[in-house]
Amino acid sequence: MKSLRELSPRYVLLVVAAIFFIGLPTQVTSFQSFEWAEVLIFAIAIMGLNLLVGYSGQLSLGHGALMAIGAYTTAILVHRYNINYLETIPIAGLLTGLVGFLLGIPALRLSPLYLALATFALAVVTPSLIKRPENLTLGVHGILLLPPEPPDWASSLFGAVTGTPGLTSEQWLYYLCLALAGVLFWVAWNIVGRRPGRALKAIRDGETAAAAFGVNVAGYKTIAFGLSAFYAGIAGSLYGIATGYVHPDTFPLTLSLQLLVGAVIGGLGSIVGPLFGGLFTFWLPLVSGQYVSSQSWIPDQVSSVFADAGPAVTYGALLILIMIFAPNGVVGLILSAYYRLRSRLRGAGERTTGQMPPDPQTV
Amino acid sequence: MQEFLQQVISGIASGGIYASLALALVLIYNAMGLVNFAQGEMAMLATFFAFTLIGKGLNYWIVLPLALAVAFVGGVVVQRIIIRPVERAPVLALVIVTLGLSSLIDGIAGFIYGYVPRSFPSPFSASTVNIFGAFASYQDLGVIGVSAIVLVLMYILLQRTTVGLAMRAAAHHPGPSRLLGIRVSWMLALGWGLASAVGAVSGIMVAPLLLLQPTMMQTVIIYAFAAAVLGGIESPLGAVVGGLIVGVVVNLAGAYLPGVGGDLQLAVAFAIIIAALVVKPTGLFGRSVARRA
Questions:
Q1: Does A308 lie at the interface with B, CB-CB under 8 angstroms?
Q2: Rounded CA separation B249/B205 (Å)
Q3: ipTM for the predicted complex
Q4: How far, in Å, CA of B293 to CA of B280, rounded?
Q5: pTM of this prediction?
Q6: Which residues in chain B are contacts of A207 at CB distance < 8 A?
């Protein structure tokens, strides 16, 4: 019992989170599973962005466009070449990662501002570029995809455990996203805690100093961007499969901005941050839109304008306020509250025993 | 040849617009090593202000300086209220703040004015005049004239006045400037105000061509980015030259390259950014600087 009590709280949290996420579809409706699948998809994309922004100190404003590349890779492979959608997911990730890698080579040579500029331009240009090769991308018509069929083994396993007839398509999608999110978060956690992660953080905190200690600055930055794009590509591919419809205007500049807001809100330079970020990115526009339109005292004109302008105002205000008051996002707030509480409970005497301070400001 | 010349002239006119916005970006980059992603949106808001005044029946040439003055004050206010609290934060945090600002202004403009595109009056007639066998519109020539006046005024202000000298000193050597009695923080605010005013010129000049709406500057800012990167992001002269080159190249590409037209002209700007970063990352007029930890 003693060993259990001394277990780091992070492992307890991990087990609780795992039970929550694996059990979720048995407790909610099929459609809600679908919504949670989208949360996980956003979380994957935001994890990619977080690896780049939070750990290597580079800024991408084009992750929405990278998601578009992933989504279109899957859509075209499934639609034109009849390849199984499951096989297209890694292809989409690798292709998007390659694009990121190639874009990173010129854009990362100078200050992080140049990557921000180049990716911003990429985000603005991508919808137009996608519309051009019409026989490949079907132009402005977009590509329709069939909802994914759950494989028999998964369906019967789920049926046997829960006593239901089997998996619905939405529930299967949820588990697919959950599995991939689990793997990708685990990979990110391992990268961040080991040599590459230390190198990236060294670059983030002092590029010249990192170079002086023998870190291959340009190489690590380019690989970080490629890896980040890989995550975005996987997320885009899943997004295409989930929504069943891929269209050039599904991936506007605002999507890239939304992802950045998610990364910032969740907490840059944190592994759980992107999960919170995914929750916010998915629910914030829906909830705020529903709330405003359900209020009868707000005139119709105002609520219809809010539907257009509200998200932009909310995102903008949130970005500014968080950067000013809580640069480590939700995770930073929780952590500092936790450390403050713990030091108060244990008293001042124990504080010297090599505790890690809460994360310093990361960006 | 005649058509080519006409394309070049209208390219120079758009180039002047891009140059103004690029110059605004360079001013803020020089002041605090930051690319202001909200520059276009700030210009858009000033343009909406001008639109409201013109709608009230005021003369265009009275509205223009008024709108620039309001843009100046707006820029100073933004620097004081939003930028100053994060002034010491890393560049990336600042960039994220300006992104938030751009989204915020976009939404505010949407709240006040809605998302319906409106036509913006132009003081210049659309009729043409013959120059060396090419027909240039008074519209294009007027835009070129206004941009040129603004750029020359900026040059005089920065290079030939005491305030300009103080601003440059504060930007490059904040510590010693403070010792000499320059109020560095207010110089930064002044820089934001000036940048906002210069950017507003581009918004007001481009509005008759693009239709006024909250997203109007989203494309213009890409051209301005291309201009600033091409010219060297710390060089005011580079911004102007880069703006003109981008304007002409994009216009010619739209006219002569098959398949490049309309929204794909943006791809040309993207290609210019990438090409500049590959071939000459410091830009045409930029200096490469040694980095210190």
A1: yes
A2: 19
A3: 0.82
A4: 24
A5: 0.84
A6: 291
